[in-house]
UniProtKB/TrEMBL annotation:
Residues 648-857 form the ATP-grasp domain. Pfam families: Acetyltransf_1, ATP-grasp_5, CoA_binding_2, Ligase_CoA_2, Succ_CoA_lig. Residues 13-166 form the N-acetyltransferase domain. The keyword rRNA-binding does not apply. The keyword Acyltransferase applies. InterPro entries: Acyl-CoA_Synth/Transferase, Acyl_CoA_acyltransferase, ATP-grasp, ATP_grasp_subdomain_1, CoA-bd, GNAT_dom, Ligase_CoA_dom, NAD(P)-bd_dom_sf. Keywords: Acyltransferase, ATP-binding, Ligase, Nucleotide-binding, Transferase. It comes from the Bacteria. This is GNAT family N-acetyltransferase. It comes from Lentzea sokolovensis.
Length: 859
């Protein structure tokens, strides 16, 4: 363990395991404690044999004793340790923090890292003895978010912490991480002073352009330029080096040649600079990060456009964009500088501005996860926009995005994702789990509105900025051009919206307003002769109809007039306008689109957000799960596929309805199994490298007697030769619809649960739905109905039984990181329930990473 982490005040510290070389620092830390702290720690003001105690803490001969420390620079400011005494699942924990650092969150940070390390070692409970007067330590333990018990015993309190990371614990960690991250990012997004290093005299240089942008924005803090060959640039005084600046700048923006970046970064760190924005490309990442780590700085970039903040208290445009940032309430983070400029310009044209722009470039440190935490707490930001080419920590991103999206819309421009590298012998599920499928599942479940282009993004942002979300998906279209109105209605249907059935009262009221040649049924065509006042009254009539959740208007100018001016905001319902060839903002903040399809797509994004906000996120308590039995099956295995009988035991351990069967290694055993079932059976070959048994000729069905079993076994022997390891004998299952349910695990994203048509249809029809585990009940419902053929495939079946299978498979995947592929195919579904007829499972040694551990990027 060796990671960079943030304290509550934004200070960067290093957390690592301590060893014999750290004895002197551990002793210094203990000796520096005031007498009162020593008494609270050791129940004595003069702890005896302290040196021996510290030596034992870090001795390699004490494997049951683990100690980690938090270092600020080279100085140890806190240490946490545990020792396993008797029960290997339980350990005694101790904590010591420098007196001057005890209000900065050192203790909770150390306990988070120590508990994560303990869980990997099989420890699930921490115990501690704390003096009743030690309120601060008791508060540290009880505020961790773990399930805890406190038992008073005279002057001492016995504390017990369960280390399983439940929702309450993860919420507590996220709250602490957000506070620390926001404090850290203040140096980047709200600096009190900036130095532009490499501010060239030539107007064509990046440094010159960036400095001019800072001057033009009227940055509220102190501004300096570093250029050894000039006295001033853009009327800003120049200094020969960072070390010669009259004060320590809070933020340094580096526009120097790539080879000089690590040296300049090191100089900035020695001077006390808190954060860097590195514009230069082609930088040696390792050398740059060495300087960043050594001096506990935060970093944006390298290879980036820069950063900006538009709030009146900052007015910082530290980018080399051609135009200044329009002040607004949209937070934008993007890896691509070109995308940043394109989005900024499109929004600017529509009168929409940014609260912050952060171009992360190579994102060696600060990433979208950091910005999500910043914008969650930023009252100026109302909408968040992301462009991500890669995910550093998808688990944390998902949790952060879901939390932010509850209060602020989060949009993402999808980037092209390679789908190469799939295993040739992968299961049906694994071949489905492409990077784009996994990414889209993450976005959908986290409430992120995904779009595929900058125009689609700006269309959605217009709607989200200026209109409320609808209460449903029923849309009315009002136009003065019938053909365009029909196109709008068609576009709505394509986007999953539905055309509202107008009430008789609405239809009658419209008849009194429009010519007899008009169409008063949805889509409503007023004809080209109505004026703006009449069009406005028609809009009011439609808007009050309870069947209408949203309205799209389509208007074109004619020689008789232009009713566009009659389009106005509605009370509590969204309205989107269409005026051919023009994307703009109409009066009263009504978004106007250039064509009906774009308006329908934007309205669908509003409806998508409304649907997600209304979703209850509940995780059911599943009974009949024997986790220890399941762990015994998959634990300690090399990479490979489980034997059929092991698969049956594993699935049964999670309460799945498995048909079962008998593994037979010779014909006699197979015959005995068939006779024991006393019914027709299926024989499935168990052979090396035979994954898809039906395709590979490894299945014989409906065998009813000993002769048939013997003949099938001989046929398998001839077909597979030395590869044959035996046969799996199963009773024939009764009829029903066949589905596929599977899991494909991704090292970063975690397990993806997939469902769709099973049996022979699996290879014929590429129709699947996917969601990331764990599944809420709503996630399971979405998955169950998410593939195109779901309606016909599930008609007349026991849907609750299938839903429970999905939930149990997701629980299996989330609980057993060793399971990297699972295929249930077919799951036989009927009106009475469902049964797993065939399944295969691949396992591999688990890495047990902790994606929610508080630590900065290590790349």
């Amino acid at each position: 363990m060796n990671s960079r982490s943030l304290l509550i005040d934004g200070t960067v510290v290093t957390v690592r395991e301590l060893g014999p070389s750290d004895v002197s620092e551990l002793l210094r830390l203990h000796h520096s404690l005031p007498i009162e702290d020593q008494y609270l720690r050791f129940f004595s003001t003069s702890p005896r044999q302290l040196e021996d105690f510290v030596q034992r803490m870090v001795s390699p001969d004490e494997p049951q004793h683990v100690v980690i420390g938090a270092l600020h620079g080279d100085r140890l400011i806190g240490a946490a340790s545990y020792v396993v005494v008797d029960d290997p699942r339980s350990a005694e924990v101790a904590l010591v923090v420098s007196h001057t650092e005890q209000a900065h969150g050192v203790g909770t940070l150390l306990l988070e890292h120590l508990s994560s390390l303990a869980r990997r070692q099989g420890v699930h409970v921490f115990t501690a003895e704390v003096l009743t007067m030690n309120f601060r330590m008791l508060r540290v333990f009880t505020s961790m978010g773990f399930v805890w018990t406190v038992t008073p015993d005279g002057d001492v309190v016995h504390v017990e912490l369960g280390l399983d990371p439940g929702e309450y614990y993860l919420d507590a960690v996220a709250e602490r991480e957000t506070a620390a991250d926001v404090a850290s990012l203040t140096h980047v997004l709200r600096p009190g002073s900036i130095a532009v290093v490499g501010a060239g005299r030539s107007p064509d240089s990046v440094g010159n352009a960036l400095l001019r942008n800072l001057v033009a924005a009227n940055f509220t803090g102190d501004l300096y330029a570093v250029n050894p060959h000039a006295k001033s640039v853009a009327n800003v005084d120049c200094y020969a080096s960072v070390s010669e600046l009259p004060e320590v700048p809070e933020l340094a923006v580096l526009c120097v040649p790539a080879k000089a970046v690590p040296t300049v970064a090191e100089e900035c760190g020695r001077r006390g600079v808190r954060a860097l924005v590195v514009i230069s490309s082609g930088v040696d990442a390792e050398e740059l990060m060495n300087a960043v780590r050594a001096h506990d700085m935060r970093l944006v970039g390298p290879n980036c456009l820069g950063v900006s903040t538009s709030s009146p208290g900052v007015r910082m445009n530290a980018t080399f964009s051609a135009h200044s940032t329009l002040a607004g309430d949209i937070g934008l983070v993007t890896q691509s500088g070109g995308i940043a400029i394109g989005v900024q310009e499109e929004l600017r044209r529509l009168g929409l501005g940014l609260s912050n722009l952060v171009s992360t470039g190579d994102k060696l440190d600060i990433s979208s996860n950091d910005l999500l935490m910043w914008w969650e707490q930023d009252p100026q930001t109302r909408i968040v926009v992301l462009y991500l080419e890669s995910f550093g920590n998808p688990h944390k991103f998902s949790r952060l995005a879901r939390r932010v999206a509850r209060h602020k819309p989060v949009l993402a421009i999808r980037s092209a994702t390679s789908e190469a590298g799939q295993r040739a012998a992968a299961s049906h599920t694994a071949s489905t789990a492409t990077p784009s499928v996994t990414r889209d599942a993450l976005f959908r479940q986290a409430g992120v509105i995904a779009v595929d282009s900058v125009p689609e993004l700006t269309d959605a942002v217009m709607a989200l900025s200026w209109q409320p979300v609808p209460s449903g998906r029923s849309v009315a279209v009002l136009s003065n051009a019938g053909g365009l109105g029909v196109l709008a209605a068609d576009a709505c249907e394509r986007e999953g919206l539905k055309m509202a059935e107008l009430s008789a009262d609405t239809v009658e009221a419209l008849r009194t307003l429009v010519p007899v040649t008009a169409s008063v049924h949805n889509p409503v065509d007023t004809t080209a002769v109505v004026d703006e006042a009449t069009f406005a009254r028609c809009l009011d009539v439609i808007a009050v109809d309870p069947a209408v959740d949203a309205v799209i208007t389509v208007t074109v100018p004619t020689a008789l007039g232009d009713p566009t001016a009659g389009v106005h905001r509605l009370n509590g319902k969204p309205i989107l306008a269409v005026r051919t060839g023009q994307t703009e903002r109409l009066a009263d903040n009504v978004p106007c689109y250039a064509e009906p399809a774009r308006a329908a797509a934007a309205l669908a994004r509003l409806a998508e957000r409304a649907d997600w906000l209304a979703r209850p996120r509940e995780f059911p308590e599943l009974d009949r799960i024997d986790l220890p039995a399941a762990q015994a099956i998959v634990g300690g295995r090399e990479d490979g596929w489980l034997a059929p009988d092991e698969v049956v035991k594993l699935l049964k351990a999670f309460g799945l309805p498995v048909l079962g069967g008998t593994l037979a290694t010779n014909a006699e055993h197979a015959i005995a199994a068939q006779q024991a079932y006393d019914s027709p059976v299926a024989l499935k070959a168990v052979a090396d490298d035979l994954l898809h048994k039906s395709k590979g000729g490894g299945v014989e069905l409906g065998i009813a007697d000993a002769g048939g079993v013997a003949a099938a076994f001989r046929a398998f022997q001839q077909r597979f030769g030395d590869r044959l390891r035996g046969v799996f004998v199963q009773p024939m299952a009764s009829g029903g619809r066949e589905l596929l349910v599977g899991v494909a695990a991704d090292e970063k994203f975690g397990p993806l649960v997939v469902t769709g048509l099973g049996g022979v249809d699996t290879d014929l029809v590429n129709d699947r739905a996917a969601a990331l585990a764990p599944l809420s009940t709503v996630d399971a419902d979405d998955l169950l109905h998410g593939f195109r053929a779901a309606g016909s495939a599930l008609a007349g079946t026991n849907e609750p039984a299938v839903r429970e299978v999905l939930l149990r498979v997701a629980e299996l995947a989330a609980s057993l990181p060793e399971v990297v592929e699972l295929d249930i195919n077919p799951l036989l579904v009927s009106d009475t329930g469902c049964v797993v007829v065939d399944a295969r499972v691949r396992v591999t040694p688990a890495s047990h990473n902790d994606p929610f551990l508080r630590q900065l990027r290590t790349s």
